[in-house]
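Sharing a chain and its predicted structure for anyone who wants a worked example. Both blocks are below, sequence first, tokens second.
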Amino acid sequence: MNSKKFEAARRYNETAEVYDRRYKDIQFAKYREVIPEIDLTKSSLIFDIGGGTGLLLEHLKELKQNIIISDLSFEMLKVGKTKCKDGNFVCADSESLPFRQNCCDTAFYFSILQNPESPSPSLSEGFRILNNDGTIAITVLTKIFEEEKLVDILIKIGFSVDKSWKLSIEDLAFVGKKK
């Protein structure tokens, strides 16, 4: 594990108990802007990469769909499992996911790509686990990422980028498909 990821995991482990109080409103604001851009009714399996405490699962509870939350922070996942007893929580590195190829229909990356040294390995894993024509949805901090650079990375990996835009908060959003 590189030092940047290790440091992020340590920080999230230390703040897991207060994460939802600090970030729930801002995360839900992102969900309200990004999720309407995706047809989740066709998704039989959804992955929330870097999903920590399961806020996306909480937000999507009416959908009653199979959602797997993965995160490198074990403490964040413990908080999530306490809140969402029926949730599927997996401690995993976004750059080496323990899932088979072509196994899911939608992969979310909400505010995770600032943690690794480079977003490419994590996004390549998303490409690997997505079914053909599967959907990827990403949010990133505008102060860390440039829209054009991330679009270029996504295209090089093999995604189409159907939409990229500035959210009403501090993030950029991207929605695309595995080609």
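Comments welcome. The longest helix spans residues 3-34.
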